[in-house]
Specification:
The chain contains 18 helices and no strands. It starts with a helix and ends with a helix. It is mainly α. Among the domains are: 63 residues, no CATH class; 66 residues, no CATH class.
């Protein structure tokens, strides 16, 4: 009987410990989950998701954004305090909140991360970190510094809230879409008025052998706007550089040209 009692007591003790352990684990687990939930609270997303129209659009666009996929959210660009529900606190300028960055501020805003080599190594070590510096060598960048806020900046080409990698087929800077992206400004005669450059480049490009190779044969190696003009440092090729620009693809012809009298 004593042995039976001891066995029963041992079983009961084991059972009690199992229940107690499970209870503790549940409490700790729920506490950890709650802490994580609090840490990840984002009042920006919660509020804008409940709105309609243009104010809800950023949340929808961010679902496919490469930055969101890497763990970034609204406050990383707009500042503020996403842990607070009160709009006066979450969008407090004293906490760095900026509703809409001005065009002149955008290159530096993007450059806070994209110009930091050490920071970018954590996310994409292969990505260049000189885009901001190169941008200011472009016609767009020079005009922006001179005060022209109508020129293209980072968000004009890459977008703002739904940014995808350049190699994503839906990215506005994917090879099949580059010409259309440039054309949003450059094919708009009214918008380009005053810059004294043609606005028919897109129509002419679509009739070219390069465009036929790109669009009809889906040959992504065929040149589009940025292959000749450059990306962030976009500058029209001058007389002295045209042969070198074309020679990037037409190697044999370039070699013969360089050897010509």
């Amino acid at each position: 009987m004593g042995v039976s009692h001891l066995k029963g007591g041992g079983a009961m003790t084991h059972k009690r410990w199992a229940i107690l352990t499970l209870a503790i684990a549940t409490l700790v687990g729920s506490g950890t989950a709650r802490t994580r939930a609090e840490q990840k609270k984002d009042s920006c997303v919660e509020c804008h998701a409940a709105l309609e129209g243009p104010l809800a659009a950023p949340v929808e666009a961010m679902r496919e954004d490469i930055h969101r996929a890497r763990g970034f959210s609204c406050a990383d660009c707009h500042g503020g305090d996403p842990s607070r529900d009160d709009p006066l606190e979450s969008m407090d300028p004293k906490k760095g909140f900026l509703a809409r960055p001005s065009p002149r501020a955008i290159p530096a805003l993007c450059g806070r991360c994209h110009s930091d080599a050490e920071f970018m190594k954590r996310y994409n070590p292969a990505l260049r970190v000189d885009q901001e510096r190169e941008y200011f060598t472009s016609v767009h960048g020079k005009r922006l510094r001179a005060g022209d806020t109508r020129v293209a900046t980072c968000t004009s080409c890459h977008g703002a809230h739904g940014i995808r990698p350049a190699n994503h087929p839906l990215s506005p800077v994917y090879p099949l879409h580059v010409a259309e992206t440039c054309a949003r400004c450059h094919a708009d005669a009214a918008y380009m008025k005053g810059y004294r450059i043609p606005s028919d480049q897109y129509d002419r490009y679509k009739r070219s052998v390069h465009a036929r190779a790109l669009y009809e044969r889906q040959d992504l190696s065929a040149p589009t706007c940025n292959d000749c003009h450059g990306n962030h440092g976009a500058v029209p090729p001058g007389v002295a550089s045209v042969a070198h620009v074309c020679g990037q693809c037409h190697v044999r012809q370039s070699t013969l040209f360089q050897a010509s009298p």
